Amino acid sequence: MKKINVMVMLFIMFLTSIVNAEIRIEVTDSVDAARPIAVVPFTSMGGVSGSDVSEIIKSDLRNSGKFQPLENNEFPQNINSPAQIDPALWRAKGIDSIIVGQVQPAADGKLAIAYQLIDISSGSANLVIQNQQQVDKKWFRYGVHAVSDEVFEKLTGIKGVFRTKIAYIVKTNTSKYAHELRVSDYDGYNEITIHKASQPLMSPSWSPDGTKIAFVSFETGPSVIMLQDTQTGQVRKIASFPRHNGAPAFSPDGSKIAMALSQSGSLNIYTMDVGSGNVRQVTNDRSNNTQPAWFPDGQSIAFTSDKTGRPQIYRTNVNGGGAQRMTFEGAQNQNAQISPDGNFMVYISSQGGRQTLVSQSLTDNSIKALTNTDLDESPSIAPNGTMIIYSTGGYNSSLGVVSANGRFKGRLPSSGGQLKYPAWGPIIK
Questions:
Q1: Of 45, 146, 272, 315, which residue is most buried, by most CB within 10 angstroms?
Q2: Number of C-beta neighbours around residue 249 at 10 A
Q3: Span of the secretion signal (predicted)?
Q4: What angle in degrees, to the nearest 10, is found between the helix axes of 140-156 and 50-63?
Q5: Given the DSSP bridges, would you call strands 97-105 and 43-44 parallel, antiparallel or unpaired?
Q6: CATH of domain 31-156
Q7: Cβ-count burial of 32 within 10 angstroms (0-12 exposed, 13-18 middle, 19+ buried)?
Q8: How far apart are CA 325 and CA 153, in angstroms?
Q9: CATH 3.40.50.10070 intervals, the chain
Q10: Is the pLDDT of residue 227 over 60?
Q11: Can you tell me the distance from the alpha carbon of 416 to that of 350, in angstroms, rounded to the nearest whole number?
Q12: Are 236 and 220 in contact (CB under 8 A)?
């Protein structure tokens, strides 16, 4: 077993300049009916490409599924500043918002990333936002993602998640420690390994403040649940009950972890108090109940159960009581995740030999297919509810990204190995 100091590794990670790298998310499906927007290549000085800035912003906005950035070769005019905008030319292209900006050296070796968001919907150019991010060169992408977050929130009223992290498990064939828990930016950049093991790792789950990650490990034999501190790198065992320990999920307030334990025979859902370690049983069935997911109120849990023969998704109160079945379409449904606002859930649905990601409204129970692939697994919803990351491809699995409205689909190319069990980290305030 190897543990790695996460904060040290994050610092090392940012020392590498990746200004000239390409966006890691590869687009696999086009965006339809999303809002058109123009992101003009930033003017630049000091050896930093302004085009790199605009391409990162374009990718962020496109990935959300809410925007369709205009391609540079479709621009009706070349502009460097708001004063040069001819609103009529851009509105003819369906554009009502334009982002322009500048990148230049600042004091102490920093970079100043300045931008302006211009609204032209009225027929004239009106300044909506003007701001500047000053960052060290090693934090270049973070600074650009901050611009994307600000623009996204201004235009949608929803907090951006472009500075968030994802965690996932990678199986490699390169060393004795072939099973790795890795963390990266949401778009696959700045990937680091924070834990290695010679035996399988599974199911990472972030604490709401981003300081801890719970995961399942088989390093010492039977499955146990581990908790890793992302600030110190310290790893400790928190659940090693008889038989199976699995599927940890932090509660919305971070005070509890739901998990699936089989200490009484069948798998059932339990909650553990993070501070005291006290465990409380939630379900008590002879069937197998697993894959708990919290509702935003912290009072209810969705889970997968085979009580009707095939896996389906149910809901129960954390204080116990009867469970309500939530899924009826498809041969079997499992691995639910609840949106942060409680308006929808996503899960894996199996039908006709295919295993795809679907979304179900929690107000009218309408169902929408989000993917058309065959072997999707382990969805995780972004903390603002706009995107979902999941694993796909079975044995040769990689990570897919789809917008919650289904308009955008992309994939994070593997950096080597099988990628599984993605978990979207929180917005760090």
A1: 272
A2: 24
A3: 1-21
A4: 50
A5: parallel
A6: 3.40.50.10070
A7: exposed
A8: 36
A9: 31-156
A10: yes
A11: 28
A12: no
pLDDT, tens digit, 9 for 90 and up, residues 15-57? 333 333 333 565 555 545 789 999 999 998 766 666 789 999 9
| Whether 388 contacts 406, CB under 8 Å | no
Q: Which of 65, 69, 86, 68 shows the shortest CA–CA distance to 77?
A: 86
Q: Which residues contact 107 (CB under 8 A, 6 or more apart)?
A: none
Write the DSSP string, 29-74. Answer: E---SPEEEEEPPPEE-TT--HHHHHHHHHHHHHHTTSEEEPPGGG
Query: For the segment 289-342, what is each residue's pLDDT rounded down to a tens digit?
Result: 999 999 999 999 999 999 989 999 999 999 978 899 999 998 999 999 999 999
Question: Per CATH, the architecture of 165-424 is what?
Answer: 6 Propeller (2.120)
C-alpha to C-alpha distance for 349 and 370, rounded to whole angstroms: 11
Instruction: Give tens-digit pLDDT for 100-114.
Output: 999 988 878 788 999
Contacts of 233 (CB under 8 A, 6+ apart): 3, 4, 5, 6, 7, 8, 194
Per cent of the chain over pLDDT 90 is 75
Of 113, 97, 138, 98, nearest to 44 (Cα)?
A: 113
Contact call for residues 391 and 381 (beta carbons, < 8 A):
no
Name the segment(s) of the chain with CATH classification 2.120.10.30.
165-424
Q: What does residue 385 show for φ and ψ, rounded to 5 degrees? A: 80, 10
Alpha-carbon distances of 379 from 44, 163, 242, 310, 372, rounded to whole Å = 39, 19, 28, 20, 14
List, for residues 260-280, the tens digit of each pLDDT value.
999 888 999 999 999 999 999
Dump pLDDT digits (tens) for 344-368: 999 999 988 899 999 999 999 999 9
Asked if residues 336 and 348 have their Cβ atoms less than 8 Å apart, the reply is no
- Please count the CA atoms within 13 angstroms of the CA of 422 that sit on its side-chain side: 30
Tell me the one-letter amino acid at 338: I
Direct distance between the N- and C-terminal alpha carbons of the chain, in angstroms, rounded to an integer: 32
Q: Rounded distance, CA 52 to CA 305, Å?
A: 47
Q: Return d(Cα 389, Cα 51) in angstroms, integer.
A: 27
- Say if CB 312 and CB 304 are below 8 A apart: yes
